[in-house]
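pasting GIY-YIG nuclease family protein for the record, 260 residues
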Amino acid sequence: MILDLEGPDVLARVPARPGVYLFRAADGIVLYVGKAKALRQRLAAYLRPSAEPAPKTALMLARARRVELVLTGSEKEALLLEAALIKEHRPRYNVRLRDDKAYPFLRLSTGHPFPRLTVVRRRRPDGALYFGPYPSAGAVRATLRLLAPAFRLRSCSDHAFRHRRRPCLQYQIGRCSAPCVGRVSREAYAAQVREARLFLEGRTAPLLRQLRRRMAAEAEALRFEAAAELRDRIRAVESLVEGQAVVAGQGARWDVVGLA
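structre below
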C-alpha cells in the first residue's frame, strides 16, 4: 500500500498494532526509526494536523516522503527490531543513539573460562565482544531476557561466580547452566557461548543446523536427557527467530506495510 504522507486518510490505514516505523526520504534513505506499542497512535503524534513536533522532528518530517511499518507480535519484539534496524541504518535523526556514548550494549566477556553476557553502557578496548548499541535499556534487557533460556549463559559477577556454593535461582528457572558449581563442563559451556555469538551475529541458520546435529548425536548415543535439553534450546531459538526476524537475519519473514 503506497500513500503520500501528506495525502488523506494516512492514519486510517495504519494498524493499531505493535511494531517499528521507518521514516524515509525521497531517495529511500532512512531518516528515523522508532517503535510503538500501537503504531496508529504513535504516528498520529507526528502526522495529525494539531501535532507540534520538536524542531529536529519537524526537520525530519519535512524531508520524509514515506513511512515503512514493520509489524511485530509484541512490544518486546518491537524493541528488538528497533535496535536491529537502527544498528543497520544509523539514521540521521536518531540523534540520541548517534551522539550519546552511554547507550547500552551486550558484552560477552572473553577473558574467563566461563564468559558472561551482561549489559554495559560503554564499549571498551578490553578484548570482549560487544553487540549493539541498543536504543534503550529496555531493548537490551529484553534481548537478554529472551536469550537466557536459549543459551543459558551466566550474567553474575566474577566475585559471585567464585563464591557460589550451590546453583542460584537463574539455574533453577532454566536461564543459566550453573558453571559456578560444575553443572556444565567447560567444553559444553564453550559451545553455548559459540551458539549465543552466532545468534547475536544474525547467523541463525548455521546455529540451528549445529544444534540439530548435536541433538541427533545425543539421541543416537542414547543420552536422551541431553537430547531433550537440546530440543528445548532449539525450540527457544526458533521462537526467537520467528518473533524477531530482523535480529535473526530472516528478513523475508517481516510483516511489512509500506506507506509512501
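The chain has two domains: 11-99+251-259, 105-243.
DSSP finds ten helices and seven strands in the chain.
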